[in-house]
Amino acid sequence: MKIAKLVVSLLTLACCAAANAGLRCNGDIADIGDSKASVLMKCGTPFFAQAFCLPLRYVDLDFVRPSDAAAAVSLGCFPVDEWSYNPGSGQFVAIMHFEAGRLASIRYGDRIP
Fold first, then answer.
1. CA–CA separation, 106 vs 85, rounded Å?
2. How far is Cα of residue 82 from the mean position of the Cα atoms in its chain?
3. Cβ(43)–Cβ(34) under 8 Å?
4. Does domain 23-111 have CATH number 1.10.760?
5. Which residues sit opposite 30 in a β-bridge?
6. Rounded CA gap, 85 and 69, in Å?
7. Is 66 exposed, middle or buried (0-12, 13-18, 19+ CB in 10 A)?
8. Predicted TM-score (pTM) of this structure
9. For the chain, what are the domain ranges?
C-alpha cells in the first residue's frame, strides 16, 4: 500500500513538473515570464504571429449581474500577442501567449503531418 501511494505521488509530481516546463528551442528553453525579445532570441521568428486587444471591463457586482454585459463599463484593452512555432514533422504546433510583453502560457495545437 505504501508503494502504491509513493508511485501515485511521484506520478503526480512528474505531471506537475511537465505542465510547468517551457518550450525547448534551439538548445535553449523559452519559459513562462520570458520577454518577447528573449523568446525571439531563443526560438527565432514564429511562422505565425497575431496581436489583439482583450477588452477590460468593470462590473459592479452589487448592482449588476455578471452576465449583463451591457451594464459593464469599458476600461480600454489589454495587449495580447500569440506566436506559433512549427517544431517539425510529427510534432505539435506550439502557441505562445504573451500578455503585457511577457510569456504567459504555452499551449499546443495540431500535430504537423
1. 11
2. 9
3. no
4. no
5. 23
6. 35
7. exposed
8. 0.66
9. 23-111
Half-sphere exposure of 16 (CA within 13 A, CB side): 6
Contacts of 37-45 with C-beta under 8 Å, sequence gap 24+, read 39/83, 39/96, 39/98, 39/103, 43/85
Q: Find where cell 510547468 sits.
A: 20
DSSP assignment letter at 35: B
Nearest to 79 by CA among 105, 99, 57: 99
Burial classification of residue 55, based on how many CB atoms lie within 10 Å of its CB (0-12 exposed, 13-18 middle, 19 or more buried): exposed
Q: How confident is the model at residue 12 (pLDDT cuts 50, 70, 90)?
A: very low
Instruction: Give the strand pairing for 73-85 and 92-99.
Output: antiparallel
Stretch among 53-57, 58-62, 98-102, 107-111 having the lowest mean pLDDT: 58-62
